[in-house]
Amino acid sequence: xxxxxxxxxxENEQKPDLPKELxxxxxxxxxxxxxxYRSIIERxxxxxxxEEWKELIRFYSEPKIIKALKEEIKYLPDYIIDEVTSYFNxxxxxxxxxxxxxxxxxxxx
Length: 109
Hints:
Elements (H helix, E strand, L loop, with lengths): L3 H10 L23 H11 L2 H11 L1 H10 L6 H10 L8 H8 L6
């Protein structure tokens, strides 16, 4: 018979301890935490608390989050860009979303 503590630990390692309310528009039980990491990181950074950011780091690792910020996440609001750069000690210019925003400036009228 398997140790129940070990099975709980394995189950917890398969998903982060994040509130269902952050994912109100998703089927929480069906989230593939590994496959949809970019959307999850984006969602938690934009709508989560600093404690939820820490859980994100625990689950995905800081290097993976930073890589997603630098290469994959294409949009974050300006105030989150400011928070992310401060929290992870990055420059705005390092972020894919900031670079993309600079390239897509609106036309002057």
